Amino acid sequence: MMLTRCLLPLIALSLLPTTGALAQAPSPHLRHIQGTDPETGTEYTRILLRGQLSSGSPFTPIALTDNAPTLIAQCTRQTSGKLSFDLFTTFGGASDLDFHAPVPTSPAQPRPKKVEVTLDFSGYTHITGLKRQWESLPDPSGMLRYSSAGFHSSNLEDTPVLLRYLVALPELRLTVSNRSANFDTRPLLTDIRSEPLCKAALL
Predict the structure, then answer these.
(1) Residue 146, strand partner residues
(2) How many distinct helices (H) and strands (E) make up the chain?
(3) Contact, 133 vs 155, CB < 8 A?
(4) Which of 64, 74, 124, 139 has a CA positioned 20 to 30 A from the CA of residue 7?
(5) Half-sphere exposure of 180 toward its Cβ, with a 13 Å CA cutoff?
């Protein structure tokens, strides 16, 4: 499978220092949300990258709008010290992009609905047509979270593996049904590398 054949060179590239295209000025298409959840004590950083609804044309930057598709990198540290990294997306129209602490669940509770999302990566080469499961979150409405590998997911890669692909192939297209969104993830990757909480979560 092409994804497996490309894994080793992309992991090697992800370990290189931040230079060249990744060392760029702050992007106007990024927004940070940081704080500590008052109920759970969870420390969080959310980095929001606005994209563009796709019409089949190459990616072009757009102004920040409430209806723009958004890719979100979230890094958290619980009071127990547990660190987590998650990736979220919305195809536009989501009214609530703030942090929401995970609600404790029991094995008897149903898992969130799975949505199949097609991922296309572009850069020095192309990897297209990768179908991966994301979870449709009931709150906030319209938000999808990448479903890491595990018992409740058919995905083979954990979330940090996707970042390794984006280091080498930074232009990302996400497609659900007849909706597609394009993201130039280079400024997002730069900010992830500079955020102490995110760096700790990805170690």
Answers:
(1) 134
(2) 4, 10
(3) yes
(4) 74
(5) 14
Mean pLDDT within 144-165: 87
Cβ 46 vs Cβ 73: under 8 Å: yes
Could you please report the per-residue DSSP string of 14-36?
HTS-S-GGGS-PPPTTEEEEEEE
Instruction: Please say if the pLDDT value at position 9 is more than 70.
Output: no
For residue 46, the one-letter residue type is R
pLDDT in tens, 71-109: 999 999 999 999 999 999 998 867 788 898 877 666 666
Q: What is the DSSP code (8-state) at residue 150?
A: B
Rg (alpha carbons) of the chain, rounded to whole number: 16
Q: What angle do CA 5, 11, 16 make, to 5 degrees?
A: 145
Question: Do 142 and 162 meet the contact criterion of CB atoms below 8 Å apart?
Answer: no
Q: Is 144 helix (H, G, I), strand (E, B) or coil?
A: strand
Q: In the chain, what are the domain boundaries?
A: 2-15+28-96+113-201
State the pTM of this model. 0.81
Residue labelled with tokens 């083979």:
156
Question: How do beta strands 113-122 and 171-176 pair?
Answer: antiparallel
Beta strand pairing status for 70-77 and 83-90?
A: antiparallel
Which residues are CB-neighbours of 70 under 8 A, at least 6 positions away?
Answer: 48, 49, 50, 51, 89, 90, 92, 94, 97
